[in-house]
Amino acid sequence: MATANEPPTQSSDDENKGPLERWTHGVLTDPAKRDRLYRALFYVACGFFLVTTLFPFYWLLVLALTPNTQILAGDWEVTVPLVGAEVPFPTPQGFNVYAFVEVFQQVPFHLYVFNSFVLASVTTVIVIALASLAGYVFGRLEFPGRGLMMLAVLAVSYFPPAAFLIPLFDAFLGNAIVVPFLGIELFAPPRLVNTPGSMIMPFSALFLPLAIFILTTFYGQIPDGLEDAARVEGTTRLGALFRVIMPLSAPGVATAAVLTFIAVYNEYFFSSIMALQNEPNQWSPLVGGILSYQTQYTTDFNLMAAASIVGVLPMLILVVVAQEKIVSGLTDGALKE
Amino acid sequence: MATDDRTAGPARRSNRSGPVVAITRWMENLGETGFAYLLLTPVVVLLGAIALYPLLRTFELSLYQNVLSDPEFVGLENYVQLFTGNADARMPGTTTFLPEVTTSGSFPYVHVEGLLRSALAVTIIFTVVSVFFETIIGFGQALVLDREFRGRRWVRAAIIIPWAIPIVIQGMIFYLMFHPDTGFLTEYLASWGLVAETNTLNDPASSLLIVTVADIWKTTAFMALLILAGLQSIDRSLYDVAEVAGASKWQQFKLITFPLVLPALGIAILFRTIDAMRVYGLIDSVSGCTTVPSLSCMVVETFNTNRGLASAIAFVTAGIIAIAVMGVIYQQYKEGL
């Protein structure tokens, strides 16, 4: 590449070159021109990323607002030229806001969303409580086997849910728990399918490790002096954790909570398998609500889109409000474990 | 680390009695190691019940006959059945990814042809292609977000949003985009030979492509955030030195940015690889698990009828992912946890 800071004095040469050649030469030699090129590239990249990430949401909005008969007609009126051909560009063919009401009339969609919220909230509380204990231990205590325990927790979180499914499903159906390889039947657990328990337990186990690693980082940063002071004041060890360390680590706790909530709300595997019938009164969450449109009302495309928008809204709000927490949580959880 | 002053707390309460006080006093008097293991108990119990027990039990089930009631011990027979499926690897576009379960074998074994290879091919193609593009696009997004500009917060939110939406809605978006009644891109993409013109969502190769694109759309943000964290940890003064030394922007990228961001990039790729190999929900909601069955799909689709085989596939899946997990653990170990 060219060296920087070379003054653009070759104007006499430039006159007998083509415009493209002159431009490349200018870019190579003139820092100001080069900066302009970088800035242009930056805006192009920025625009490209915005369009590609946001277009699918625009597509949902178009489908939701367009009456179903118009969708089936498939005429989007506008076309844009794309390499080689005119491609139809979806634009709203009407303004049917009523679809957002119909979503709740066709199936009790609000109940599915409610179930998702309950499952996500309860899981978040359990995960934060357990991860606080573990985070305190890993972040503040020295004991033999600490590194090994952390690795074990880490390893568990990476196994595919499919590897846990078959025995868990058996157990949640109420079949006896059998000690592996010994054949001893321990006890018959209660039948948990179609109840929150069959989802909250796997969710908690699945999303516990990330919360543990986030909280380990935060709890480990609280100065020992503060904990000692609380202990001198007569607080028990657990009291110091829940009344001193946890409140002081509030941002970390919030981060772990937000990420857990999002993860549970978005979960598919156990949400779709453990609620057997997609019935909202049997604790089927959002997954069941959306899938019931796909499987029962197979031609109500505007309602599918409207339901998706309703289902996405809580996450949209959460991302805008808690953006910093999500960013720091994801990067801390992954990079600083 | 935590205080060793164990007398301050309980001393004041010594005049009270009752089970709570007794337990509190017992906990206060535990050594640091004992206290650490006590606090870890709930986490260990949960992960043991939801992850470790099912994993071992899955392995045990995979060693038994492929029947539902009273299976006999058959050793590695199910694995032999899986791996000797003598059909060709079902690659996209040739025939189908569907497992061909024929009953040519003697009861109670069914002879399975190409089942594992087909699912393995789907899972590996999906993982490699999506992680490859996520890395490249994610790097681009990270470079854009690394600059200071007005509205950066909003651009970042827009890029994160796909990551935060439920898998079932991500699936719904792409289902609607390529459904014969609503899709607007099918014709154009078919003219390039990328997807099938008709029955797009029932065509294995087309579905695999659509699912891969959907995954890239959703999870690139995760990659971008991890790479961004790596970028922002680079000491800015290195660039000033490079500027003075006359290095071009490209040289700065090649000699400073890329090598220094490489560790974060490596972790991000490992994380995404592990996650992508578990793919289930996206496939299930876009095209259904019978069109492009991944490894997890196979388990879910068959575990109610082929207990032994499904367990074997589940355990093979776990084994394959375990290899990638080793990579992560090795990385953590190298950094001294």
From TrEMBL, chain A:
<feature type="transmembrane region" description="Helical">
    <location>
        <begin position="40"/>
        <end position="61"/>
    </location>
</feature>
<feature type="transmembrane region" description="Helical">
    <location>
        <begin position="301"/>
        <end position="322"/>
    </location>
</feature>
<dbReference type="InterPro" id="IPR050901">
    <property type="entry name" value="BP-dep_ABC_trans_perm"/>
</dbReference>
<keyword id="KW-1133">Transmembrane helix</keyword>
<feature type="transmembrane region" description="Helical">
    <location>
        <begin position="148"/>
        <end position="166"/>
    </location>
</feature>
<keyword id="KW-0813">Transport</keyword>
<keyword id="KW-0812">Transmembrane</keyword>
<feature type="transmembrane region" description="Helical">
    <location>
        <begin position="112"/>
        <end position="136"/>
    </location>
</feature>
<protein>
    <submittedName>
        <fullName>Carbohydrate ABC transporter permease</fullName>
    </submittedName>
</protein>
<keyword id="KW-0472">Membrane</keyword>
<feature type="compositionally biased region" description="Polar residues">
    <location>
        <begin position="1"/>
        <end position="11"/>
    </location>
</feature>
<dbReference type="GO" id="GO:0005886">
    <property type="term" value="C:plasma membrane"/>
</dbReference>
<keyword id="KW-1003">Cell membrane</keyword>
<feature type="transmembrane region" description="Helical">
    <location>
        <begin position="240"/>
        <end position="265"/>
    </location>
</feature>
<dbReference type="InterPro" id="IPR000515">
    <property type="entry name" value="MetI-like"/>
</dbReference>
<dbReference type="GO" id="GO:0055085">
    <property type="term" value="P:transmembrane transport"/>
</dbReference>
<dbReference type="Pfam" id="PF00528">
    <property type="entry name" value="BPD_transp_1"/>
</dbReference>
<feature type="domain" description="ABC transmembrane type-1">
    <location>
        <begin position="113"/>
        <end position="322"/>
    </location>
</feature>
<feature type="region of interest" description="Disordered">
    <location>
        <begin position="1"/>
        <end position="22"/>
    </location>
</feature>
<feature type="transmembrane region" description="Helical">
    <location>
        <begin position="200"/>
        <end position="220"/>
    </location>
</feature>
<comment type="similarity">
    <text>Belongs to the binding-protein-dependent transport system permease family.</text>
</comment>
<dbReference type="InterPro" id="IPR035906">
    <property type="entry name" value="MetI-like_sf"/>
</dbReference>
Automatic annotation (TrEMBL), chain B:
<keyword id="KW-0813">Transport</keyword>
<keyword id="KW-0472">Membrane</keyword>
<dbReference type="InterPro" id="IPR000515">
    <property type="entry name" value="MetI-like"/>
</dbReference>
<feature type="transmembrane region" description="Helical">
    <location>
        <begin position="119"/>
        <end position="145"/>
    </location>
</feature>
<protein>
    <submittedName>
        <fullName>Sugar ABC transporter permease</fullName>
    </submittedName>
</protein>
<dbReference type="GO" id="GO:0055085">
    <property type="term" value="P:transmembrane transport"/>
</dbReference>
<feature type="transmembrane region" description="Helical">
    <location>
        <begin position="308"/>
        <end position="330"/>
    </location>
</feature>
<keyword id="KW-0812">Transmembrane</keyword>
<feature type="domain" description="ABC transmembrane type-1">
    <location>
        <begin position="120"/>
        <end position="326"/>
    </location>
</feature>
<feature type="transmembrane region" description="Helical">
    <location>
        <begin position="35"/>
        <end position="56"/>
    </location>
</feature>
<comment type="similarity">
    <text>Belongs to the binding-protein-dependent transport system permease family.</text>
</comment>
<feature type="transmembrane region" description="Helical">
    <location>
        <begin position="255"/>
        <end position="274"/>
    </location>
</feature>
<feature type="transmembrane region" description="Helical">
    <location>
        <begin position="216"/>
        <end position="234"/>
    </location>
</feature>
<dbReference type="InterPro" id="IPR035906">
    <property type="entry name" value="MetI-like_sf"/>
</dbReference>
<dbReference type="GO" id="GO:0005886">
    <property type="term" value="C:plasma membrane"/>
</dbReference>
<keyword id="KW-1133">Transmembrane helix</keyword>
<keyword id="KW-1003">Cell membrane</keyword>
<dbReference type="Pfam" id="PF00528">
    <property type="entry name" value="BPD_transp_1"/>
</dbReference>
<feature type="transmembrane region" description="Helical">
    <location>
        <begin position="157"/>
        <end position="178"/>
    </location>
</feature>
